[in-house]
Amino acid sequence: MKTARQLVIVLLVLTIAAAARKRDPLTDAETDQLRQAALEPYKRLKLYIKFTDARVAAIDELRGDPKQANGRGRKIHGLLEDFTTILDEINDNLDNYQGRPLSKDDRKDFHKGLKEVIEASDKWEAKLKSLKSDSETDPQTKKEAEDYRFALQDAQDALQSEAEMARQYIEETPLEGKPAKKK
């Protein structure tokens, strides 16, 4: 009985430690903004696009600042993980609102949000391709890329999935409220 209790305590400690290591990719301010837009699909999508843009801008800033060369690969790794997690949230939001009965205005907003997700995805794809290309050609970036190579691949895979989902949903979401024709 005593061994079982000790085992439970050890498992609890390990669970708490694992949970503590997993960090939230969003700041407290970003989380508050999402809470305020909880029931508005278009505003949520716009916020997630904004937050993702901020991670891409931070990567660009890191890459362009020679003063931040120390540990740059690990920092980019973290930003790419945040980028991927936020893309997953975009996918979750698209799934949540796709197929739901929406008012005409909400349907228009959702459609508009889908278009903006697709446009942003194209922009993000270009940035990730540039990062990958530099990691294959530039000697300094090649060295740093050892820290984020897999995170970059995960980010590219998540981005491809997110863009495909948005494109599929835009085809399936008619603006007039009638079901889309099945192919």
Characterization of this structure:
The protein has a single domain, classed as Methane Monooxygenase Hydroxylase, Chain G, domain 1 (Up-down Bundle), CATH 1.20.58. It has seven helices and no strands. It has helices spanning 2-21, 28-36, 41-64, 72-97, 104-137, 139-145, 149-172. α4 (72-97) runs parallel beside α7 (149-172). Helix content is 79%, strand content 0%. It is mostly helical and 183 residues long.
Write the layout of secondary structure elements.
Blueprint: H1 2-21, H2 28-36, H3 41-64, H4 72-97, H5 104-137, H6 139-145, H7 149-172
- Classified by CATH, the class is Mainly Alpha
Helix-strand sequence:
HHHHHHH
Largest sheet descriptor: none
Rg estimate, integer Å: 20 Å
Low-confidence stretches: 17-21, 179-183
Summarize the structure.
The chain is mainly alpha-helical.
Describe the structure using short key phrases:
mainly alpha, 0% strand, Methane Monooxygenase Hydroxylase, Chain G, domain 1, disordered C terminus, 183 residues
